[in-house]
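Re: [ENG-882] Designed sequences occasionally contain unexpected residues at chain ends

Forwarding the minimal case from QA. Structure tokens:
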């Protein structure tokens, strides 16, 4: 259970870090953010064309959900729980798309991001 929470925290930090770097620039559309993240994952693990399409669709959906969460006036705790659910769902779907070797590389990169 502790590993699961740690894994989830790493993923959340990765996406929050990505959003913060993107937020410093102009507000980008979910598609633009997803395209950038897909490219970064592709460079990291060497995605196939089919994997790129699936990851892109997944990230567009996740970014749309995250931007909708940010635009609604929820309390902080509720917003965090909703974001956590989106992140968990996103990670589960990414794991299903990537092969075990790619997923291991992806997870190591998230751990490195957390250490920074």
């Amino acid at each position: 259970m502790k590993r699961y929470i740690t894994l989830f925290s790493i993923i959340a930090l990765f996406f929050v870090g990505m959003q913060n770097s993107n937020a410093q620039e102009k507000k980008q559309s979910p598609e633009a953010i997803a395209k950038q993240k897909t490219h970064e994952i592709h460079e990291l693990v060497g995605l196939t064309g089919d994997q790129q399409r699936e990851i892109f669709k997944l990230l567009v959906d996740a970014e749309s959900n995250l931007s909708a969460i940010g635009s609604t006036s929820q309390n902080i705790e509720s917003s965090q729980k909703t974001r956590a659910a989106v992140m968990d769902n996103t990670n589960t779907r990414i794991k299903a798309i990537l092969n075990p070797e790619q997923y291991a590389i992806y997870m190591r990169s998230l751990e490195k991001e957390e250490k920074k």
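QA comment: On inspection the terminal residues look reasonable. The two ends are 24 Å apart (CA to CA). Proposing we downgrade this to a documentation issue.
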